[in-house]
Amino acid sequence: MKVIQVKEFLDTDSSYAESRANQFLTELSDDQVINVCYGSILKTGKHDTGLQRSSILVVYRTKE
After folding, report:
1. Which of 39, 46, 52, 62 has the fewest beta carbons under 10 Å from its own?
2. No. of H helices and E strands in the chain?
3. Who wins on pLDDT, 46 or 33?
4. pTM score > 0.85 for this model?
């Protein structure tokens, strides 16, 4: 039985959401991917510098 699931990827100080999401997507077949959603915010860092933070949500079907 196929199940629809979601997996969320968030930027952190040590890893980027984009690279982890792309790695995960290589493990899925094209027919498993339902949707990929992306969002970003600007976070204030040290010394009032702006840091962009991304979040990626992958909606996919599991294999049978």
Report:
1. 46
2. 1, 3
3. 33
4. no
